Amino acid sequence: MCGIFAVSLPGNEAGNLVLEGLKKLEYRGYDSWGVAIRQDSGEIILRKDVGKIKDVQIQFEMSGEAIGHTRWATHGGVTMANAHPHQVGKVTLVHNGIFENYLDVKSKYQDEGMGFRSDTDTEVIACMVNDFLEKGMSVAGAIRHSAEVIQGRFSLLVIAEGFPGIYAARRGSPLIIGRGETGTFIASDIPALLEHTNVVNYLDDDEMVHIEGNKAEFSSLISGDVIEKREVAVSWKAEQASKGDYQHFMIKEIFDQKKTLRDAIDHDDEKLHEAVELLQKSNGAYFVACGTAHKAAMCAEYYFAEISGRKINVVPASEMPSFERFINDKTAIIAVSQSGETADVLEILERGKKAGAKILALTNVESSSMARLADVHIPINAGPEKAVASTKATTAQMAILFLLAYADAGKLNLGREILSGTASAINDLINPRYENYVKDVAGKILNQKSLFIIGRGSLFPMALESAIKIQEVSYIHAQGFPAGELKHGPIALIEEGVPCLVLGDDQDTLSNAMEIKSRGAHIIGIAPKRAEVFDDWLKVPDCGQAQSIATIVPVQLLAYYLATFKGLDPDMPRNLAKSVTVK
Ligand code: M6R
Questions:
Q1: Angle, in degrees to the nearest 10, between helices 269-280 and 392-408
Q2: 501 lies in the same domain as 442
Q3: Residue 335 in contact with ligand 1 by CB distance below 6 A
Q4: Domain termination site, one of 429, 457, 472
Q5: Which of 578, 474, 576, 583 is nearest to 73 (CA)?
Q6: Which end of the chain is least crowded, N or C, by CB within 10 Å?
Q7: Are 158 and 67 within one domain?
Q8: Residue to mutate, 342, 388, 395, 555, ligand 1, most ligand atoms under 8 Å from C-beta
Q9: 517 C-alpha to ligand 1 centroid (Å)
Q10: CB 338 near ligand 1, within 6 Å
């Protein structure tokens, strides 16, 4: 949610490098963009605009230091004035996060006669830092002092006239420092750094850094004391974070599933047993996740119930506060998240940890905040996922959760065998011929206003996930239901020609399909066997208990083709951002 990028290096390319870095971070927000560069004269100049950064083709003035931002609007509409960077006096600043008490601080400055150009919380931070600077503090001191006032999560980049170098500070929103041979880079996510370096320092909460050329000095955001940070080599490669020959990241990432499922299950037994031990020692376990990751966790609720006979509660992170009274030092919390940075989940984990709960985190971004907070972390090994719609990370999450259920049952090898068969089946499934079947179905339902999806057992969460996939990229109203629930109300919405995706071919689900077909619905079966009730059929391999993993793949393709046939950009759907780091 908001991408930020900074460069300090000898030479004159900083502005252009920041622009390129922001293009790689655009999936984090694409309402507006902006870059600030320090000119040779010392003056800091701004270039910003509303809209997506991907098509911006400008050459920046010569500069060795620049900061930039691509915005997902929170406070203030999508306007030029609200685009970052914000400049007050000598201070220019970009910000990711939310300054919750900004109105109190803003009104104090307004009472003193200060005028604001934007509606953002960020401009108020710039105003504070500048104020403390004018009162004689150093830039680092002014940032520390401002951080004392700010309630909420943030990451900040600050560049100040008359003070060389770039400052960055973090509390709750990610910041990674890339160490090049001659220069230093700062980004809110790893893919933007890979082209320059794979050696990084992770900034932790309440830490700051000052970079100048290839020097980086870390300090505490609380005390100002200097901190030593470890350099870490990142395993992701630049090619993994690029589209290659594909038109969009979404379709590339769907095809990546030919391999990622195998990578996901490629964990040594010890790690999986460590995770399961944490569950087995607990007296009550909760899956906490958001959006698609929450649907993967819902699936896992079925896996554990059916495979190891363990009941695990599943709660969307934003609803967890109602259940927090049940969290104590005997509880296991299992966080499922692609980014490992989702604010609603992080907050529950932080509070859970304080209550003594043990944390197991499954994340794709290996050194994410959740990974670092967890007692046990399992990386899902899907490689960078850049399309806003999660695809390969979802199936990787489901595969690991499936494996954990088998490990819990003491039958890890059998779990691996089933998943290995599923991985091969998915590898065979995704090919251009199959894509043509999906395109054919997409063409038939393209102009529908609404569609329904039903499934039973672990295919019910996949019906919910199918709805998210279709809604977010094609903007068609889609809703998922347990197959048996439709007749208890939603069936009233079925009219002649309304498409209904039926996940599975078990007798009960087929009977439910028949109930809606007889009221005019157009039935699209997604199942191993063709049934008479299906008007259209997308075959999926029979993967037994791992059927949910195979079944979501054709729906991902369907969502992709619905979006592209409608001329929409599936990688950057309206109003969304890849990583939701605000509550
Ligand atoms: O990074 P996370 O897995 O924690 O993200 C959670 C959701 O925001 C995410 O799954 C969202 O629902 C996706 N856009 C769905 O495709």
A1: 70
A2: yes
A3: no
A4: 429
A5: 576
A6: C
A7: yes
A8: 342
A9: 33
A10: yes
Task: Say if 392 falls within a structural domain.
Answer: yes
Q: Is the CB of 547 under 6 A from ligand 1?
A: no
Whether residue 11 is found in the same domain as residue 92? yes
Shared domain check, 450 and 421: no
Residues 145 and 285 in one domain: no
Q: Which residue range forms the structural domain that includes residue 377? A: 243-429
Closest ligand 1 atom, residue 363 Cα: 3
Total domains in the fold of the chain: 3
pLDDT band for position 236 (50/70/90)? confident
Q: What's the number of CA atoms in the CB half-sphere (13 Å) around residue 552?
A: 34
Q: Is residue 583 included in any domain, yes or no? A: no
How many residues does this entry show for the chain?
A: 583
CATH number at residue 306: 3.40.50.10490
Q: What is the distance in A from the centroid of ligand 1 to the CA of 468? A: 10
Tens-digit pLDDT profile for residues 250-269: 999 999 999 999 998 888 89
Contact by Cβ (8 Å): 291, 319: no
CB under 8 Å to 242, separation ≥6 — which residues?
none
Report how far ligand 1's centroid is from the alpha carbon of 335 (Å): 12
Query: 316 CB less than 6 Å from ligand 1?
Result: no
Range with lowest mean pLDDT among 70-84, 107-121, 343-357, 446-460: 70-84
Residues 6+ apart with CB under 8 A from 342: 289, 290, 293, 317, 579, 580, 581
Residue 379: asked if its preceding bond is cis (omega within 30°), the reply is no
